[in-house]
Amino acid sequence: MIIQYYHKIQFHSGPQALLYNIRQKFWPLNGRNLCRKIVHSCVTCFKDNPKISSQKIGDIPEDRVNPNFVFNSVGIDFAGPFYIKTKLRKRDPPTKIYVCIIICLSTKAIHLELVSDLSSEALIAALKRFMARRGKCRKILSDNATNFVGTKNEINRLFKLMEQQDALFQNFLSEAEITWSHIPPRAPHHGGLWEVGVKSFKFYFKRVVSNTCLTYEKFLTILIQTEGLLNSRPLTPLSSEVEDIEILTPGHFLIGRPITAIPKPLMIELNDNRLNRWQLLTKKVQTIWKHWSKNYLSNLQQRHKWMFKKDNVKIGDMVLIKENNVPVSNWPLGRVVKLYPGKDNIIRVVDIKTKTLIFKRSVSRLCVLPIER
Fold this sequence. Notes:
Mean pLDDT: 77
CATH topology of the largest domain: Nucleotidyltransferase, domain 5
Low-confidence stretches: 161-166, 266-272
CATH class of the largest domain: Alpha Beta
């Protein structure tokens, strides 16, 4: 009680200054630790300098570690806006466009699509072009942007309308249906794979285009060339051995070699058996996946942060909700009302109730107040 009283009358001073002033009249046993405990459990001091919660990083999702068809499970995001010139009139203002980035979760292969705006209709058209060229995908992950949520609702409504057709058509739709999932709101680290894809695309594209306003043909040409460069990046660290010239890239899963590699001369032998050539091709594909399992997956196991398990957030905890571009003193106060445990029973996503509404947030956006319930 004495330490708490002095802490308040001294305008919430730190542990060192608090202990000095108390020792003018008292000599508390284990005073240094007691002062630290009082300061760290003070809600007023915590609100002024809140500590963001964190939790041990989760296991790698199954879609990233299981061999499957390229672009079977993908993440999707947008980059832009960019501006292009139209040839209708010289004085016409530039047209705003965006780039839809689709990345394979298992092989990191990237597909780039040009879209006119961020509407659900434009995204559906981009997905149709993507699946016509790369094949149908089974699962799509994205953030909680408005256009993505609208597209998910549109796809679900489309499947409900198609359920009234004959049984054969129903079977076809059930096989081709896409599972669309969203990461928690304002938690971009849950979608780090496609966020890195956006960063890599901008790395190449902006160094070439800069602020130049290109025509549609030139813009599309540079866009596709950038896609080829991204699909020729090594997936594993480069070896210092002279014999290890060829390294595994996303292009190996698309065409059997890096996109930017020089084609080898065609060797045709008349006496070769077709079955032997098929076996040779099958062996090459299996070798690529073996290299992927042996070298690439081992690199995914490395963890550079969030390596230790911490106490889970509990229902009823009072928290400060981190908001971007808002002073710490104005962060809203809320209470945890629902938990979303992962497969390892670690809580990384919760529902927060404020004065006006209930919404979902990642624990990395929360600061748990030091209140004993």
